[in-house]
C-alpha cells in the first residue's frame, strides 16, 4: 500500500499523496485537518512520511486517535511557533499546487491556464508574421506586451513555488518544475542577447530560434491543474515496460519485412546513375536500401500510409499487404495495455 500511495516512487509520502489516499478511501479530509495530521505523524519533521511513520499512522488510526485535537492541545513552544511558519508556507504551497484546496487556489489555477492559452496563441500567431530584419527593434505591439505579462506572472509563480516548497532539494528534480523554468527561459535569453549590445550572428540567431521553440513547452503546465492529464501521464508511466516490449516486437517485424521488400523491389543496378532501377517501371526503385524499407515498414504497419513509397511488383504488393495486416494486430496490443492501465 505504501508503494501505491508513493506516486513519485521517492521512498516517502508527501502531504498531497496522503490526502489522495484519504480521497481514494472515500474519506476526504480538509486542508486544515490534513496539515494537522501530517505534523503529528511526521515524527522527524522533515516534511515527508517514511515507511516507519506510515506504519505509525495506521496504528494511531486503529487506536482512534483524534489528530486534530492532539495538534490543538500541543503547548505553545518555540517549535510551535516554527510550525506556524511552516503552516503559512504550506498554505501558500496549497494555493499554488492544489487548485481544489480553496477558492483562491482555484482562481490562481484558472488565471495561470488563461495565461498559458494566451501565450501559446501568440506563439502560433508569430509564425504567420514575417521575421524582422537583423538589427530592427521589436515593435511594442499587443504580442510583445502579452508575452511580457505572461513571463512576469510565470516568473512570480515559480518564485512563490520555490519559497513555499516543502523541500527545496527535491523541487528542481520534479519534471513539471523544470517545465516552469523552460517556459520562461527563452524570453530572458533574448533579453540577454539584446543587453549584450552585440549584433547577433548566424550561430546566435540559430540559438535564439531554437530557444524560442521551448515556449511551446508551456502547454505542459496544463497537467499541473487538470487531473485527467495527470491520470493520463500515470497510465502512460505504468505502461512503459509492456509498451517497450511491443515496440521491440514491432521493430523486429519491420526489419524482417523491410529486408524482404528491399530484396524484391530493388531491381537491377544502373551504373551510370548509381541507383537501383525497378524491373517493372524502368525507373529508380523506391527501395534503394533496407533503411528505406524500414521507413516504409513503420508507415505501413502503423496504418499511416503516406504513399511516398510503395511496391510496384506483384510480390512486393503481396508482402506489403501482409505487413499491413500484421501491423494492425501489433498496434492493437499497446492500445489494450494503455486502456487497461487507464481504467485502473
General description of the model:
The model is unreliable at 63-79 (pLDDT under 50). Helices cover 66% and strands 2% of the residues. It has 3 domains: 2-74, EF-hand (Recoverin, domain 1, Orthogonal Bundle), CATH 1.10.238; 101-225, Up-down Bundle (Four Helix Bundle (Hemerythrin (Met), subunit A)), CATH 1.20.120.350; 238-343, Helix Hairpins (Orthogonal Bundle). The longest helix is centred in the last third of the chain and has 30 residues, at 314-343. A two-stranded antiparallel sheet has the order 1-2. It has helices at residues 2-5, 15-24, 31-41, 51-62, 67-72, 78-97, 103-126, 142-164, 168-171, 175-196, 202-213, 227-238, 240-265, 290-301, 314-343; strands at 268-270, 275-277. Strand 1 (268-270) and strand 2 (275-277) form a beta hairpin. The radius of gyration is 29 Å and the shape is flat. The chain has 15 helices and 2 strands. With 344 residues, the chain is mainly alpha-helical. 18% of the residues are buried.
SSE order and pairing:
Layout: H1 2-5, H2 15-24, H3 31-41, H4 51-62, H5 67-72, H6 78-97, H7 103-126, H8 142-164, H9 168-171, H10 175-196, H11 202-213, H12 227-238, H13 240-265, E1 268-270, E2 275-277, H14 290-301, H15 314-343
Antiparallel strand pairs: 1-2
Helix pairs in contact: 6-7, 6-8, 7-8, 8-10, 10-11, 12-15, 13-14, 13-15
Amino acid at each position: 500500500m505504501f508503494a501505491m500511495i508513493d506516486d513519485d516512487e521517492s521512498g516517502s509520502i508527501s502531504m498531497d499523496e496522503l490526502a489522495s489516499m484519504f480521497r481514494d478511501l472515500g474519506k476526504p479530509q480538509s486542508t486544515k485537518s490534513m496539515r494537522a495530521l501530517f505534523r503529528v505523524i511526521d515524527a522527524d519533521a522533515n516534511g515527508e512520511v517514511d515507511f516507519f511513520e506510515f506504519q505509525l499512522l495506521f496504528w494511531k488510526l486503529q487506536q482512534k486517535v483524534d489528530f486534530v485535537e492532539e495538534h490543538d492541545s500541543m503547548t505553545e513552544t518555540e517549535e510551535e511557533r516554527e510550525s506556524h511558519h511552516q503552516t503559512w508556507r504550506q498554505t501558500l504551497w496549497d494555493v499554488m499546487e492544489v487548485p481544489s484546496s480553496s477558492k483562491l487556489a482555484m482562481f490562481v489555477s484558472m488565471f495561470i491556464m488563461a495565461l498559458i492559452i494566451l501565450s501559446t496563441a501568440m506563439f502560433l500567431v508569430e509564425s504567420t508574421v514575417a521575421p524582422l530584419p537583423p538589427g530592427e527593434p521589436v515593435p511594442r505591439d499587443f504580442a510583445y506586451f502579452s508575452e511580457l505579462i505572461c513571463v512576469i506572472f510565470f516568473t512570480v509563480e515559480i518564485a512563490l513555488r520555490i519559497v513555499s516548497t516543502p523541500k527545496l532539494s527535491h523541487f528542481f528534480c520534479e519534471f513539471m518544475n523544470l517545465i516552469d523554468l523552460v517556459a520562461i527561459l527563452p524570453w530572458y535569453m533574448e533579453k540577454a542577447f539584446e543587453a549584450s549590445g552585440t549584433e547577433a550572428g548566424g550561430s546566435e540567431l540559430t540559438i535564439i530560434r531554437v530557444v524560442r521553440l521551448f515556449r511551446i513547452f508551456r502547454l505542459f503546465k496544463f497537467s499541473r491543474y487538470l487531473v485527467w492529464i495527470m491520470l493520463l501521464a500515470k497510465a502512460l508511466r505504468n505502461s512503459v515496460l509492456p509498451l517497450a516490449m511491443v515496440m521491440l516486437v514491432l521493430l523486429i517485424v519491420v526489419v524482417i519485412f523491410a529486408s524482404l521488400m528491399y530484396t524484391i523491389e530493388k531491381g537491377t543496378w544502373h551504373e551510370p546513375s548509381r541507383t537501383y532501377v525497378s524491373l517493372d517501371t524502368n525507373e529508380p526503385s523506391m527501395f534503394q536500401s533496407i533503411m528505406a524499407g524500414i521507413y516504409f515498414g513503420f508507415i505501413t504497419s502503423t496504418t499511416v500510409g503516406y504513399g511516398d513509397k510503395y511496391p510496384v511488383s506483384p510480390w512486393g504488393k503481396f508482402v506489403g499487404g501482409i505487413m499491413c495486416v500484421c501491423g494492425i494486430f501489433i498496434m492493437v496490443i499497446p492500445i489494450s495495455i494503455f486502456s487497461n492501465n487507464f481504467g485502473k
